[in-house]
Design a protein that fits this description.
5 helices, mainly alpha, about 120 residues, TIM Barrel, 2 strands
């Protein structure tokens, strides 16, 4: 986690030096990019630690190989596993998600948000 946070801090600094407005920066821990299954699972579990960077957090776990490895399923059968990672991600601080199955995931997001961020859904 320390390496991910350090890399993201560097990326934020580079973006701001390049003229990107602070309010236009979001962070993505890079689930599935150069990480082992255990590292990917740990990132989702400890996602809240990224809040210290004070940027919105994007989570992209939809149909990822980590879901397939845990559940032993091909990409087109990973909906439930992907939805579980979204719900847990929201509980751990994800502000936005990148997904394949929009309709189903939107329902999970709305329900998760209504529990985690009470009073902000639909306002």
């Amino acid at each position: 986690m320390a390496k991910v946070i350090s890399d993201l801090e560097t990326s934020i600094e580079l973006a701001m030096k390049a003229g990107v407005a602070a309010e236009n920066i979001i962070i993505d821990p890079g689930i599935g990019f150069g990480k082992s299954l255990e590292q990917n699972l740990e990132l989702v579990k400890r996602l809240a630690e990224l809040k210290r960077l004070e940027k919105p957090i994007l989570l992209g776990t939809s149909r990822k190989s980590m879901v397939g490895q845990v559940l032993n399923l091909p990409p087109d059968q990973r909906l439930e596993g992907s939805l579980a990672t979204v719900a847990i991600g929201i509980a751990n601080g994800a502000d936005m998600v990148r997904v394949h199955d929009v309709r189903q995931t939107a329902l999970v997001c709305r329900m998760s948000d209504s529990i985690i961020r009470r009073g902000t859904v639909g306002d």
